Amino acid sequence: MGVINVTPDSFSDGGKYALTAQAAARATALIDEGADILDIGGESTRPGALPVALDEERRRVLPLVERLADCGIPVSVDTQKPELMREAIAAGASMINDINALAARGALEAVAATSAAACLMHKQGDPQTMQRDPHYAAVVSEVRGFLAARLEAAQRGGISRDRLVIDPGFGFGKTLEHNLALLRGLMQLADLGVPVLAGLSRKSMLGKITGCEAEGRVFASVAAALIAVEKGASIVRVHDVAATRDALAVWNAVKNND
Ligand code: HH2
């Protein structure tokens, strides 16, 4: 899954693709690099980010979704807002990626009324404050329990299991140790029986390990993506598609000869 942030303030690519034309060119590049899914976001959720008003998020995201409706691969929209979920699906998106796990009022209904897929992500707190003092007694089982409950809620709300994906939400209210424990224990989430999505690309946990700034975290991101796949992830959400694809091609070649 290749990431395109149509925002002025995303932590690694903020401002680079803020215009629809720039973002569309980026989408073409990611498809050429071998992305299987595109994930378009109009609201940064980096630690400390301020919420974006519906109209502004709509203005950033919808023209790009319309433009990519026939791009040949599924388009996912990263939003927490039920109104935008509906509009994005109507404009051609086939997946909603919600860091709030469809918990906003009306979000389950917005997806249930369509045939789109949804990614349910775990977070502790909100982007503005989530990294202040994240706390868990047992991070893997707590995240697993939350995702199991949201899977139940989504199915009760009319979204069948085959449309659902789960994500531990690396960096969303988690210390480095929490993130590492989740990566080590990712298979326990995969055991829930739906595909696991892992978003580690360029995140600050990789900066803490390597000392590199966001732009210099490509090698660390590729390593993290590879580990996530080895631990059961089916989808990796990345900024650097070509590098990740090559690494996974090697992994696959070895794996398929087991
Ligand atoms: N991470 C980010 C945003 N959306 N969605 C899912 N499902 N999983 C993630 O790990 C995830 C996500 C944050 O990364 P990015 O989009 O690159 O930055 P920003 O939030 O600053 O736009």
Amino- and carboxy-terminal Cα gap: 26 Å
Structural class by SSE content = alpha/beta
Uncertain runs are: none
Q: Give the radius of gyration.
A: 17 Å
Strand sequence of the main sheet, in spatial order?
A: 1-2-3-4-5-6
SSE order in H/E notation?
Answer: EHEHEHEHEHEHHEHHEH
Helix content: 40-55%
Beta-strand residue fraction:
5-15%
Largest sheet: 6 strands, parallel
Number of strands: 8
How would you sum up the global shape?
globular
Q: Number of helical runs?
A: 10
Quaternary structure classification: single chain
Q: Averaging pLDDT over every residue, what do you get?
A: 96
Bound molecules: 6-hydroxymethylpterin-diphosphate
List keywords for this structure.
258 residues, alpha/beta, six-stranded parallel β-sheet, two-stranded parallel ribbon, 10 helices, 8 strands, globular, binds 6-hydroxymethylpterin-diphosphate
What does this structure look like?
The protein is an alpha/beta fold. 43% of the residues lie in helices and 11% in strands. Helix 2 (54-68) runs parallel beside helix 3 and helix 9 packs parallel to helix 10. The mean pLDDT is 96. The structure holds 6-hydroxymethylpterin-diphosphate.
Topology, element by element:
Layout: E1 2-5, H1 20-33, E2 38-41, H2 54-68, E3 75-78, H3 82-90, E4 95-98, H4 107-112, E5 117-121, H5 139-156, E6 164-167, H6 176-184, H7 186-190, E7 197-198, H8 204-210, H9 218-230, E8 235-236, H10 241-255
Parallel strand pairs: 1-2, 2-3, 3-4, 4-5, 5-6, 7-8
Helix pairs in contact: 1-2, 2-3, 9-10
6-hydroxymethylpterin-diphosphate (HH2) binds at residues 3, 5, 7, 10-12, 41, 44-46, 78, 97, 99, 119, 121, 167, 169-170, 197, 199, 237.
